[in-house]
What does this fold into?
Amino acid sequence: MPVFRSADPVRTYYAFNTAWAFFGALAFTLSMVYYVRDVGLDPLQMVLVGTTLELACFLFEVPTGIVADLYSRRLSVIIGFALIGAGLLLQGLVPTFLAILAAQVLWGVGYTFTSGADQAWITDEVGVDRAAKAFVRGQQFALAGTIAGTVSAGALGLISLPLPMALAGAGMILLALVLAMVMREDNFHRTPKGERETFKQMAETFKHGLGVARRRPVVRTLVLISLISGLASEAFDRLWSVKILDFQFPTVFGTSAPAFWFTVFALVGTLLSLITSVVLNKLSPERLSATHPNGILAVLSLFEVAAVITFALLDHLWLALAVLWIKTIAGTLAWPIESAWLNRHVDSRSRATVISMVSQANAIGQVVGGPPLGAVGRSSLRAALLASGLILTPIPLLFLRLRPARDSALSGEKSSLGAAD
It folds into this structure.
């Protein structure tokens, strides 16, 4: 029997999710070390790399969605993986600032081709019920792929820092070629004109999101928090590794290479977040699923703020890593609680609109806040990191300002506003 486009859709979905997670971890575990050590990027350039990626994703989300809506989900996924691979390969083989900026555009555009198209494809092929099970199982395969990719990146990085990135790029291109041969698409139907994503629809989504936010305190506050978080996160996410690389790493198993230690740091952070999440879910599930979790979110955000500020001030490797892991744990715990809270305060019809609004606010914050903080980092890395922490300081207070009484009254108002949404 010919193999051309004959693979089982569910197995195909598991396979490319696992491969994408593996190659992603292989490429990005040591990417920051590569940017600093091999390419020699300064703090502003580091942040501009992230800003370029954000802009590419933001600007091309709609045009690339046309391929998935009108022509083929399968084609969109294949194009996306090929472009991501090309971007990774370019920045692994050409260690220059301009090449890395170009790579971000390739990788960002590629990501927008895959974003949503993979889930739409599997849902079309197997139906909603089977797709829901595939999403859960696919996440488990992806986690295994991430762990394997992280460990592989550490081993290969001891040989050469760009090697895991280049291999990940080549692997993604090979994955695209394999999918072109075996990935089937039997149930694709063009998206109706009224349901397609367009720039006009994006503007209307943003306008509608503002309207919902004005009426609902929880939504309004979470949009503002997302914007503030974005203003600070782009610089911190890019610059924390620059600070860590200034420290002297201890020798273990005969090596003190950053490739080894950054792999260890990534694995420890993931493991600590997982353990903390499991423990809190068992010991205090009512707090994590509270109807009005402003208290726990205020505490978690306070930990994040304190961790960022303390990290900026510390001059000891293990203390700096400890507070960095505290930030990671707090953020990991806060995300599902905040997401559930947001979803409880919007009705089904406006849910996607509001979630999109929150994401757009964060992206705008990253694009606006990243470059100025990167410029500060050129003169003083500590000042840039400290500024990131200070920008975050209003967030705990914003959570505490939200009172259950106000939201209860708002919940009663939702039914009367549902038609307006």
Observations:
- The radius of gyration is 22 Å.
